[in-house]
Design a protein that fits this description.
- This is Isoaspartyl peptidase/L-asparaginase.
- By secondary structure, this protein is an alpha+beta fold.
- It has a single domain, classed as Glutamine Phosphoribosylpyrophosphate, subunit 1, domain 1, CATH 3.60.20.30.
- It has 9 helices and 13 strands.
- Strands 1, 2, 3, 4, 5, 6, 7, 12 and 13 form a 9-stranded mixed β-sheet that branches.
- Strand 12 and strand 13 form a beta hairpin.
- The chain is globular, with a radius of gyration of 17 Å.
């Protein structure tokens, strides 16, 4: 017996204000969000697996220069792109992740292949890329990922001695532009995927929550799938994604209660800004954020499409 299916995606949360957003950029971003969620939904509609759906959705956002993942990733202190991604399948708690990759066009695909074609969960740096090339991935030059916007952003950060997305002249400066997707397929499987370029001007091989199972990504059949976006260090310390799952599993909170309790509760009290997208075992979707906006879209079990940016939409 097939079940209803649904999908939700995000392109980052943070200080996203209408007065800072041009109409042209808003239209472009909304188009990307719709394209992403439709790509994943088409797979679900054909009876495809939830993992295939979330990977397809995230790839669309990685390929867009408008988000901090894949092409358009922010730059490190040494003017490089270093990307992280993770995928989790709720059926057998299987997971795969990569961190610090520099020459892989779609890190979310590599994270999936770590999950499906290796005995490991997390591969980093040169080792992750060695694994990729053994599995016929193409070497992608850094020039593909770097945009003028991100280069200017890095210079602004260096001048101010900062290492975040909070102090430059772009409309999404104070935004944590991680991208992600969660889905439930017709077989009741839940899956989540998350991908990011990290933070501007990062040093020392820093890795955030996007590559950490249970922090930025989590999926458990019959319970919930979660993808997070925000200040990674806080999301790791609070193990945000697994905390939401635990509240649902043990306290019997619904997806709305659990997400809000974590995002508006301890995480916010710690100083952690950001949000999550989540989907429960019935395909119910929830977006939670303690910021002024989150790029997001969904197609629910009734087939209704929504695309939103600001917190009050």
């Amino acid at each position: 017996m097939t079940k209803p299916f649904s999908i939700a995606i995000h392109g980052g949360a943070g200080t996203i204000l209408p007065e800072q957003m041009s109409e042209a950029l808003s239209t472009e971003i909304r188009h990307d969000l719709e394209k992403s969620v439709r790509a994943g939904h088409q797979i679900l509609a054909r009876g495809g697996d939830a993992v295939a759906a979330v990977v397809a959705a995230v790839k669309v956002l990685e390929d867009s220069p408008n988000f901090n993942a894949g092409r358009g990733s922010v730059l490190t202190h040494t003017e490089m792109v270093e990307m992280d991604a993770s995928v989790m399948h709720g059926k057998n708690a299987n997971a795969g992740a990569v961190a610090g990759v520099r020459h892989i066009r779609n890190p979310v695909e590599l994270a999936r292949d770590v999950m499906e074609h290796s005995p490991h969960v997390l591969l980093i740096g040169d080792g992750a890329e060695e694994f990729a090339f053994k599995h016929q991935y193409q070497y992608t030059e850094q020039d593909y990922f770097v945009t003028d916007r991100r280069y200017e952003q890095l210079q602004s950060m260096k001048e101010k001695g900062l290492f975040a997305l909070s102090e430059s002249k772009y409309p999404d400066d104070n935004k944590h532009g991680t991208v992600g997707a969660v889905a439930m397929d017709q077989h009741g499987n839940l899956a989540a995927a998350t991908s990011t370029g990290g933070i501007t001007n990062k040093q020392y091989g820093r890795v955030g929550d996007s590559a950490i199972t249970g922090a930025g990504t989590f999926a458990e059949n019959g319970n919930v799938a979660v993808s997070a976006t925000g200040m990674g260090e806080y999301f790791i310390r609070k193990t945000v994604a697994s905390e939401i799952a635990a509240r649902m599993r043990y306290l019997k909170e619904d997806v709305h209660q659990a997400c809000e309790a974590v995002i508006q509760g301890d995480l916010k009290a710690m100083g952690g800004e950001g949000g999550v997208i989540a989907i429960d075992g019935d395909g119910e979707i929830h977006f939670a954020m303690n910021s002024s906006g989150m790029y997001r879209a969904s197609i629910d079990i009734d087939g209704t499409l929504t695309v939103k940016i600001y917190v009050d939409e």
